[in-house]
Design brief:
By secondary structure, this protein is an alpha+beta fold. It is built from four helices and ten strands; from the N terminus they run E-E-E-E-H-H-H-E-E-E-E-E-H-E. Strand 2 and strand 3 form a beta hairpin. Helix 2 packs across helix 3. The two termini are 14 Å apart.
Length: 194
């Protein structure tokens, strides 16, 4: 979670509504990132992005910097197509946990859920997870990073796109696809891992 004294920075995301929106996501509640701007750096993902919409988010500077680093390495760079990425790894990297192994990131996300700190929203820069607590195990379906009230940044599934997703759309998606409700669990750590 970001502190009030932490330096803030502009993160401009260029997004598009994909031709095929996953079933359950509401109209406008799910957009894929095709480019971003941080400071003087501008990154564009491969493909068409002429109809993209730009939106500025004011986030912790460390989050903006690591978001750019993650996108450049995992989506734009020469080795990007050979790198593994998923929602847990992406969120861990963007919130400052670094480029850790995916199973470590999954463990951290599941740990957030197991603590049971449910929330209706994530603070800007806060790492959280959408998931469920069961009798035996706590499970995180998606890791998230808060970028604006009601909105989060997430990497969708194994080698999926980077997306801006509304919390309400995420809830609807899980109801439609898994037949059960999930909750948002907010990390209480200032920085999960450096």
């Amino acid at each position: 979670m970001s502190s009030h004294n932490e330096r803030q920075q502009s993160l401009i995301l260029h997004t598009v509504t994909p031709e095929s929106v996953p079933e359950g996501y509401t109209e406008g509640g799910y957009r894929t990132v095709v480019g971003l701007e941080v400071a003087r750096k501008q990154l564009w993902l491969p493909g068409e992005h002429g109809d993209s919409e730009a939106e500025e988010f004011i986030v912790p500077a460390a989050m903006a910097d690591t978001a750019a680093e993650y996108v450049e390495k995992h989506y734009v760079g020469e080795e990007a197509e050979h790198l593994y990425r998923n929602c847990h790894l992406g969120a861990a990297a963007i919130t400052g946990a670094g480029f850790i192994k995916w199973h470590e990131a999954l463990g951290l996300a599941n740990d957030i859920v197991s603590r049971g700190a449910t929330a209706t929203d994530l603070a800007v820069g806060q790492w959280g997870a959408i998931g469920e607590t069961g009798d035996i195990v706590a499970r995180a379906h998606h890791s998230l990073v808060g970028i604006k009230p009601g909105l989060a940044l997430q990497t969708d599934g194994e080698n999926g796109p980077l997306s801006v997703v509304a919390h309400t759309a995420n809830m609807a998606y899980h109801r439609a696809n898994y037949g059960h409700d999930v909750e948002i669990f907010a990390s209480t750590d200032e920085n999960p891992r450096h």
